[in-house]
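Quick illustration for those who missed Monday's session on complexes.
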Amino acid sequence: MRVIERAVELSATLDEQRSAGRTVGFVPTMGALHDGHASLIERAAVECDTVAVSIFVNPLQFVPGEDLAEYPRDLGADLVVAEKAGAAVVFAPTATEMFPDASRTTVHVAGLGDVLEGASRPGHFDGVATAVTKLLALAGRSRSYFGEKDFQQLVVVGRLVADLSLPVEVVACPTVRGSDGVALSSRNRYLSVDEREAAAVLHRALRAGAACVRAGERDPGEVVDLVSAVVEAEPLVTLDYAAVVDPATLATPRTLAGELRLVLGARVGATRLIDNVAVEVPR
Ligand code: AMP
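Prediction with adenosine monophosphate bound:
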């Protein structure tokens, strides 16, 4: 496995692979790799000839007061996970390599980046969109793998790829969970034992919301009230938002119909976690 720090070298390496007739899979991450990340890399390795993983803790997507300095970083351990999952290339740039002082461009995905998680973390999705656009530009023609765990991010990335005609096919991968239902996340390592136990309420609440839609509830307000009540019964967890949204527009429909996403953001102790599930109303 080749580890690359320079942006131009990543582009040149992947261009060489394509010139040799190989397809490229690309998996952008912020490192602290776990089985959720590994599932993306493994799928890319099944579907593509050469898999590149980027490991970059993107400072632009942390809003003031967030955990940029504390965010877990362990490149040595990440290289082991990436190689075992099938990566041939790891791109691990410094912040100045990604964003030299001369950088002046921000990618803003209007609407989609301003709601839900974006409303609680103003500027977060501009940071995500700007870094992902640059990473995808460097990777070039590829299939790029993103987790449904970060559902709003997936929607934002799908939109920017379409709007900017990037030569990238975005592949959505299912959320990998622990046996307690908690979505794997690099931030789970901040949780105490009690908080980890409490965090299981998030998936439980989403499942309760989905079950109530499947049982016939068509009023999004009622579903959100139920999800909120389940979360609020857990004293260590504070709900930030819960919503039932159209998976393409992230807007809440007046009446629930077709494919939907139940999404939420919450604080477990001091740790912010997000989760979501799909639910479909049969037509
Ligand atoms: P991150 O390192 O948190 O920025 O995540 C990098 C990629 O891995 C993103 O596309 C995430 O959505 C995806 N990812 C993170 N956690 C999971 C998970 N539990 N299951 C599936 N994909 C995940």
